[in-house]
């Protein structure tokens, strides 16, 4: 796949982004695990999102808990 986007900071064409784990802090008590996406040329952060794999695991756990309550 050829990606034609350019980094908004260094203006170089981006063939891929580097993903890195990052903690997202909402306040002192609330924190989520996330990914940051960085330009491979200048390392600028282009985007951040919550870690979708962790969200799926948490959702799975919550659904199982509720199903167990219903099945009792
Ligand atoms: Zn860049």
Summarize this structure as a short list of keywords or feature phrases.
single chain, 72 residues, alpha+beta, three-stranded antiparallel beta sheet, 1 helix, 28% helix, elongated, binds zinc ion
* Shape field: elongated
How are helices and strands ordered from N to C?
EEEH
Strand content: 25-35%
Bound ligands: zinc ion
Helices and strands: which structural class? alpha+beta
Rg, alpha carbons:
18 Å
Alpha plus pi helix count: 1
Helix content: 25-40%
For the secondary structure, the number of strands is 3
Residue-averaged pLDDT, rounded?
91
What is the CA–CA distance across the termini? Answer: 50 Å
Q: Which strand order spans the largest sheet, edge to edge or round the barrel?
A: 1-2-3
Count of individual domains? 1
Low-confidence region ranges: none
Overview of the molecule:
By secondary structure, the chain is an alpha+beta fold. The chain has one domain (18-71). It has one helix spanning 52-71, and strands spanning 18-25, 31-38, 45-50. Strands 1-2-3 form a three-stranded antiparallel sheet. A hairpin with a 5-residue loop joins strand 1 (18-25) and strand 2. The model has no long low-confidence stretch (mean pLDDT 91). The site of zinc ion has 8 residues, from loops.
């Amino acid at each position: 796949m050829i990606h034609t986007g350019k980094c908004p900071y260094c203006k170089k064409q981006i063939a891929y982004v580097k993903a890195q784990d990052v903690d997202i802090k909402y306040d002192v008590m609330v924190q989520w695990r996330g990914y940051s996406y960085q330009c491979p040329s200048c390392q600028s952060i282009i985007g951040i999102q919550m870690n979708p794999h962790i969200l799926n695991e948490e959702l799975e756990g919550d659904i199982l808990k509720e199903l167990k309550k219903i099945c009792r």
